[in-house]
Amino acid sequence: MTNNCTDHYSKFLFIWFGQFISIIGSGLTTFSLGIYVYQQTGTASSYVFILMCAFLPPFLLKPYGGILADRHDRRLMMILGDLGSTLGLLFIFAMMLKGNIELWQIYLGIAISSVFSAFQEPAYKALITDLLPENQYAKASGLMQLASSAQYLISPFLAGIILTIMDIKFVFLIDVTTFLIASSIVIWIRKILSRTQITKQEQNNMADLKEGIQEFSKNRGIVNLVITTTLILFFVGLLQSLFIPMMLNLTTVKAVGTIQSICASGILVGSLFIGVYGSKNKYVKTLSISLFVSGIFFANLGLSTNVIFITLAGFMFFSTLPFINTAIEVLIRKNIENSKQGRIWSIISMVTYLGSIIAFAVAGFLADKIFNPLLESDGLLVGTAGLIVGSGEGRGIALMFIISGIMISVVALLIWKNRKIKQLDDVEDKDGELSQNKYYVET
């Protein structure tokens, strides 16, 4: 049994590697197209619309992708998702070869690719439960987070080099190649594990979606955890929106890019640690402690104008995120029936993503109309909060970060006191060894 378990983990590593290089390829395309469109138009709105085309379709279609992931072979769903994503890239490539490509053609191509990713991602996440026993969930989650961070750390660096030595059209070919490699690996894994079968009931899509919502809502611990995660993502969304505007008031554009990369590299360190060593069984405790510490580091981003101090605080904040994400993911994963995980992960993803969407919608208003004016030279808080964060351009954002960090630490304490969430850890204690082998038996 141990040998089979190890063998399944090695198969997961092959799939993970394929997705890792595929994510890098997608990052190359997103970064390169963003630069291309901005250079052609000179407007930020054109660049932002690329991001909208990349992220909005998956957000809207994830519930349906989850339903399909529960009703069909998840490996087949991944193959179709990867191969389908190449269609949009090849469309953009063909339009560029014709010359005088228009913006709507770029947007359409990105949207086509992102539609297929909406069906690939839920299947990829749920596939972990098919292949691995519960005691390997944390390692797999850490590695998946490591792969996800590659598009922010590796892809921009590689794209910058590629664009200086060759035309942007070749970036699409590279991305298509990474998709083909990823799908080929899954095809191979599917062939050698062809005996793995998952029983799925034939239902209509609306019935499946309704069942997923009911399954999600009946576990109050999971509901509380997801609502809490949504709140956390709201504060993290403020950081994503306002970190660069704050830093541009303190240093140069080049330095801001370097600082952002160094800060984000904390995700790699935390993910690599979890991927190698795994995580402890008491995930609620891990979540509470990691979240409390992350809030302290978050608040420190606004306490000083010293660039080195801010960079260190940012690195430490991002290094805690993999521990938070892994704890949340494992708590949810081991409390949901395997056959329903695809659709429930999609629902959870949509609910939690609302926190980021709301943050993006209000961040600019809060910074420009409320907090920054309060800490300008004649602002109302110069003589109070200004003594801590300073006054002048961007210090209102710093105050927002301090408040956000404090709120995250408060949320950590609330999680520790929440009885329903703490009960999510009890599943392992009640089921013991049988619980750890449940998913292995099914695969």
UniProtKB/TrEMBL annotation:
InterPro entries in the record: MFS, MFS_dom, MFS_trans_sf
Q: Which GO terms describe its cellular component?
A: plasma membrane
Q: Where is the Major facilitator superfamily (MFS) profile domain?
A: 11-423
Q: Where's it found, cell-wise?
A: Cell membrane
Q: What top-level branch of life does the organism fall under?
A: Archaea
Q: Name one Pfam family in it.
A: MFS_1
Transmembrane in keyword set: yes
Where does it primarily localize?
Answer: membrane
How the protein sits in the membrane?
Multi-pass membrane protein
What GO molecular function terms would the record report?
Answer: transmembrane transporter activity
Task: Tell me which UniProt keywords the record has, alphabetically.
Answer: Cell membrane, Membrane, Transmembrane, Transmembrane helix, Transport
Q: Mind telling me which residue stretches traverse the membrane in this protein?
A: 12-38, 44-64, 76-97, 140-164, 170-189, 222-243, 255-276, 283-301, 307-332, 344-367, 397-416
Q: Which protein is depicted?
A: MFS transporter
Organism source for this protein?
Methanosarcina acetivorans
